[in-house]
Amino acid sequence: MMRFQFRKLLSGLRASQHGNAVLMTALGLPVLLAATGYGVDTAQWYMWKRELQHSVDQGAIGGAWALAYSSTNDYNTRAKQEYYGNQDLIKGFASTPTIQLTSWDGGSNNSVKVSGTASRRLPFSGMLFNSSAVISASAQAAFAPGASYNACLITLKKDGTTFTVGGNATVIADCGFGALSCDNNAITIDGSSTVQTKSITTCGTADVPTSLQGTVNEGVHGMTDAYKNTYVPTPQAPDNKTQTPKCNGNGKKALASLVPGIYNGGYTASCNTVLADGVYFINGGVLDLSTNAEVIGEHVMFVLQNGATVKLGGQGGAGSLTLGPLGDKAATVNGGAYASHADEISQMLVMQDSSNTSVVDSMINGNSEVNVSGTMYMPKTNLTINGTSGTKSNLCFQISAYTLKISGNSYLQTLCDANSTTSLGSTVAGVRLVG
Predict the structure, then answer these.
(1) How far apart are alpha carbons 62 and 78 in whole angstroms?
(2) Over the stretch 173-205, which tens digit does the pLDDT of each residue have?
(3) Cα–Cα distance between 390 and 370 in angstroms, integer?
(4) CB 404 within 8 A of CB 378
(5) CA-based nearest residue to 308, from 361, 259, 257, 372
């Protein structure tokens, strides 16, 4: 009887389904716990990883910005400040960063690379495997330093080869060359010429001898014509009269005394010439000061109107030309007509006004000695310096022309201070993550 009852009990238990859920829960519980632990670990790992990556990103950017502003800045210290300053969750177990000055995209030492690690046990896997998780991250930031550019010999045409030095020319201009052209070979200097300068700056490229390559700044965008909006004088009373000067006397004693005013059709110096202080308006024609005699104008400004051109230099070697800008007399010349613009025009020697819409040709040529100071601003002039002309100045002499060609046996010297010459513009420092 008892055996029958026991068999019946076993059959009942075998047929019962009341314990299935408990059994399946017991079997699935380890998997559930593992998945939960893995999820917690993954979330924790992701937050550590993201914070570590942000730390190295900011470290690389901070170090790169330090160098973008000055090559002497302590980029290492700056990178560490940013690295540690952007940590919260991993603070205390992140490693000391590795900081390197590296090269990027063909440059030389133009990027900062920061690498770091963080090592700590995760809640689940650390207990399961008795080990710490190691997280690594790195970042690389490239930088381009900002800079300001100046020059005393500048070409303004924005395409083509605009600035050439060739033949046996000698150019001494530590204050720099500049070309706004963005084309290849915007500046070309022949190897047979003698050139001394501390900077050559162009939007395009420069073809120069090996000895000058260390001075070249290529691909400089954003350069501008510094004098484009400079005030241009117009004839004002009492010097708005047409002048017709003549040589008085004979032979070597002949002398022309010029006064400010309007010179229709230009002016040719055919004898010794003295120019009174003031502004001279050359209305068309040629301002020809290439005489074999002496020409002296210590405080003058020539305004070229209606396609007027200039010719300086002499033809036989006996003459000389000495010219200087208005300077501190700019406020008083021509009856004080230009006093409100004295600062703008005080250093202008030759200025081409807006009536010159077509490009014209001017030159400094011949054998005579040319001693000048001030600025020649001729945005619509192809200026050529050739022959055996000598342009020597112990003061600052600057040229901003449409194009400039220096050739032959010409000699051009200007002793401008590079820090106080014509501004070509500036580039803004830049930093970006590249890796």
Answers:
(1) 6
(2) 999 999 999 999 999 999 789 999 999 999 999
(3) 6
(4) no
(5) 361
